[in-house]
Specification:
With 427 residues, this protein is of the alpha/beta class. The chain contains 19 helices and 14 strands. The strands form 2 sheets. The protein has a 7-stranded parallel sheet, with helices on both faces. A 7-stranded parallel sheet has the order 10-11-9-8-12-13-14, with helices on both faces.
């Protein structure tokens, strides 16, 4: 296959950088961005043996992408595969340690350097590789194809913004997508954009996030916090990013003059908890950090849930959720998880990463868009004053996301020809 000059330049640059990989990882470890005990996995050095038998390699960038793959993990184990799940973040590794079923395990994704990927593939020798959403890495694609491993992009996504950017480099993205054996898109719009950019075999299979089981919860923790909250109105600001927590604190301050309010902030990056508390204090809001063992106390409480893997707990405590990365940052966060647990959804205007889901929710009035702190104050005040309206929006959100399951069935049907070549017998 002809290789584009920019791709060749990337290959050459990453080869030059390879001797410095350990130094790069050491600097990242100092900043808390790498796992101190397992950083060697990022060099392609496995931390466990490869068991005999067919092995499916699934890769998702971080928490959201890897959790969306869970329905496939379970189906692949049932189909007779061992499942190797790779991600690139410490948070996702910690979460998957508690979620992956028997027959599956986690390793960190190697850096996109040729030598690291060669080590990884030589050790694991996957029978098939399933890459989630928009994880398009040149060396990963090249080395996987070179090793003659079927490479499929599943739950594939190509936002309009990314599509416009890639159109400036049509030969590069075309050469990369041409290395895919199959591309299974999460929406028809995604399928159309990926086809226009050069993916040769593209099908719309649906969004795996609709098939993910409701987030788990610890019953004792739920009972404890429910008792602490009592009858106070409560809302959760989930997966927030820089700039949004200050808006949430301003909203809490305004609403607490009218309601004995509980505001729960779940930052997308838990390590930012102390910084968020300092920002809240500067605005005159007393904050409590869950990571320090604080409870939900006082007539009004601003509670920072700077922990990992507890969103299922906080969505069950609140019937109202604001989803971050949508006011001051762009892209939005997954609204399916809170909607499945009966939360009415609030979001900012910048939700292009989940445009189809939010469009369905907004049109059915299971979600409302807010564009400022003032909007958020008005909508929350209305919801707390009108419990019947809140229940109706919550019910609608749950009904909407309940209509669109089945992507895992579609994906498994499309992958069956590969399975028959690998395992032999039909499913």
């Amino acid at each position: 296959m002809k290789q584009e000059p920019l791709f060749l330049a990337y290959r050459g640059l990453t080869r030059i950088l390879s001797p410095f990989a350990s130094l790069i990882l050491a600097l990242r470890r100092q900043r808390g961005k790498e796992d101190a005990a397992r950083w060697h996995e990022r060099l392609g050095l496995a931390s466990r043996a490869r068991e005999p038998g067919p092995l499916a390699w699934l890769h998702g960038a971080s928490v959201g992408e890897s959790l969306a793959l869970m329905p496939l993990v379970e189906r692949l184990v049932e189909r007779g595969f061992q499942v190797l799940m790779t991600t690139g973040t410490v948070t996702s590794a910690n979460l998957l340690a508690a979620r992956l079923p028997a027959g599956s395990f986690h390793q960190y994704m190697p850096l996109d350097l040729p030598i690291c990927l060669q080590r990884f593939l030589d050790h694991w020798q996957p029978s098939i590789a399933l890459v989630a959403e928009s994880e398009i890495w040149p060396n990963m694609f090249f080395e996987t194809q070179k090793s003659q491993i079927p490479l499929i992009l599943v739950n594939a996504r190509m936002s309009e913004r990314s599509f416009q950017r890639w159109q400036k480099f049509p030969n590069v993205i075309g050469a990369l997508l041409a290395r895919l054996d199959m591309c299974l898109a999460q929406s028809q719009d995604d399928a159309d954009r990926l086809h226009l950019l050069g993916a040769s075999y593209v099908k719309f299979a649906g969004n795996l996030k609709y098939d993910v089981a409701p987030l788990p919860v610890d019953g004792m923790k739920l009972a404890d916090l429910t008792a602490q909250i009592g009858s106070r109105p409560v809302w959760v600001a989930a997966s927030t990013h820089a700039g949004e927590e200050e808006i949430v604190a301003q909203v809490h301050l305004a609403l607490s003059r009218k309601f004995p309010l509980v505001t729960i902030v779940v930052p997308r990056h838990p390590r930012r908890g102390k910084l968020i508390a300092e920002q809240a204090h500067a605005l005159g809001v007393k904050a409590a950090l869950r990571s320090q063992g604080a409870g939900i106390e006082g007539p009004s409480a601003f509670y920072i849930a700077d922990t990992i893997g507890e969103l299922g707990l906080f969505y069950r405590l609140a019937s109202l959720a604001f989803l971050g990365k949508s006011l001051t940052s762009h892209g939005g966060q997954n609204p399916i998880e809170p909607a499945k647990l009966g939360c009415a959804i609030l979001h900012g205007p910048f939700v292009q990463n989940f445009a189809d889901v939010y469009r369905q929710l907004d049109e059915a009035q299971g979600a409302l868009c807010v564009e400022s702190a003032e909007d958020l104050i008005k909508v929350l005040s209305m919801m707390f004053d009108d419990s019947a309206r809140l229940r109706e929006i919550s019910r609608t959100a749950s009904e909407v996301v309940g209509q669109f399951g089945g992507a895992s069935d579609q994906i498994m049907r499309n992958l069956e020809p590969f399975f028959q070549q690998i395992i032999g017998e039909p499913g």
